[in-house]
């Protein structure tokens, strides 16, 4: 089996060494080159033709974001962003995932010295990912304007929307939610993401989406036009309540390797909402969310899945579809309209 060729780009020789060591521990991966800035990296990409690039967010000469945009415009390929835990680092990492980076990983820090142990697994996922063409900001704004016009007469019917996503989910959620109207269904989301990035992601979504987006907190009440994103880290997001439903964060072990877990969220929605819900599973690696979405469908909820051709990684949606949890599969660019049609009191014929 051919090894996955990786180019490591980081201005720190120490960090390049740590990344190369972590990747070289996997027999299926070969570090074919290292570069200390985007100018060297550009030449290395031409000469070495790597399968995956690891890219530092903050670098001299040209920022990681600028370089990523050039890569995705001129030679789209799988990129994993390597980020510090600074506020700026988190914001730029979220922006990088929006531009088209497949995944991100935090640089090791005291108390988390072994963080790069996940890197070989992330590289393997990235190598098999579908890389989508770069969407420009003007294109996104045009689509969002059209979506708002299309949903001008949307009237929510009271149902709750629950969404699960993982690898590729940042890009998918930005595209999906920017098409939602200002008074969209009450929405809860579990996106696999490190704790340091979810607040930045919620803020980014809030800036570009018509609805109000924020990190979920215990007691936050569900209402039309409000979207709650599960914080990354050690807490699962659940729904609670009978009449006035609200978010609940609780500590717990990882489920399917994740906290927050999509399955935990979906199971709570099945228990709390029954048929008064809609479930959606988006791009991601693994099986998290499949059994929970099946519970939602059995409880009477309508369920959707992102189709294979529009997924960065068709893992979670495939697992849910194979289990019989997905009622309808659609490409990403048709999901918002389908969900709004399903949850509106005004039915179009």
From TrEMBL:
SUPFAM superfamilies per UniProt: CheY-like (SSF52172), Methylesterase CheB, C-terminal domain (SSF52738)
Entry superkingdom: Bacteria
Post-translational modification remark: Phosphorylated by CheA. Phosphorylation of the N-terminal regulatory domain activates the methylesterase activity.
InterPro entries for the chain: CheB-like (IPR008248), CheB_C (IPR035909), CheY-like_superfamily (IPR011006), Sig_transdc_resp-reg_Me-estase (IPR000673), Sig_transdc_resp-reg_receiver (IPR001789)
Top EC class for this record: hydrolase
GO molecular function: methyltransferase activity; phosphorelay response regulator activity; protein-glutamate methylesterase activity; protein-glutamine glutaminase activity
Protein name (record): Protein-glutamate methylesterase/protein-glutamine glutaminase
Organism of this sequence: Hyphomicrobium denitrificans 1NES1
Gene designation per UniProt: cheB
């Amino acid at each position: 089996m051919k090894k996955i060729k990786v180019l490591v780009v980081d201005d720190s020789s120490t960090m390049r060494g740590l990344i190369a060591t972590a990747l070289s521990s996997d027999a299926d991966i070969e570090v074919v080159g290292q570069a200390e800035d985007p100018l060297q990296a550009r030449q290395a990409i031409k000469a070495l033709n790597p399968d995956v690039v690891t890219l530092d967010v903050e670098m001299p000469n040209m920022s990681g974001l600028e370089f990523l945009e050039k890569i995705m415009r001129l030679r789209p390929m799988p990129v994993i962003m390597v980020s510090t835990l600074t506020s700026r680092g988190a914001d730029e990492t979220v922006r990088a995932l929006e531009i088209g980076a497949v995944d991100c990983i935090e640089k090791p820090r005291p108390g988390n010295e072994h963080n790069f142990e996940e890197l070989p697994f992330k590289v393997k996922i990235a190598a098999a990912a579908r890389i989508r063409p770069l969407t420009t900001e003007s294109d996104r704004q045009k689509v969002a304007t059209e979506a708002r016009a299309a949903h001008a007469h949307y009237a929510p019917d009271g149902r709750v929307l629950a969404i699960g996503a993982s690898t590729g989910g940042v890009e998918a959620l930005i595209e999906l939610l920017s098409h939602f109207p200002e008074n969209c269904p009450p929405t809860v989301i579990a996106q696999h993401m490190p704790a340091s990035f979810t607040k930045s992601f919620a803020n980014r979504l809030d800036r570009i989406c018509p609805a109000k987006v924020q990190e979920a907190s215990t007691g936050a009440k569900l209402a039309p036009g409000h979207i709650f994103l599960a914080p990354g880290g050690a807490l699962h997001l659940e729904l609670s309540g009978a009449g006035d439903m609200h978010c609940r964060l609780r500590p717990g072990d990882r489920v399917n390797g994740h906290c927050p877990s999509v399955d935990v969220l979906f199971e709570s929605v099945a228990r709390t909402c029954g048929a008064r819900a809609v479930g959606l599973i988006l791009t991601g690696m693994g099986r998290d969310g499949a059994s929970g979405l099946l519970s939602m469908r059995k409880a009477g909820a309508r369920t959707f899945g992102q189709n294979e051709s529009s997924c960065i990684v068709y893992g979670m949606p495939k697992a849910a579809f194979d289990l019989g949890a997905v009622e309808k599969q659609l490409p990403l660019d048709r999901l918002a309209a389908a969900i709004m049609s399903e949850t509106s009191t005004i039915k179009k014929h």
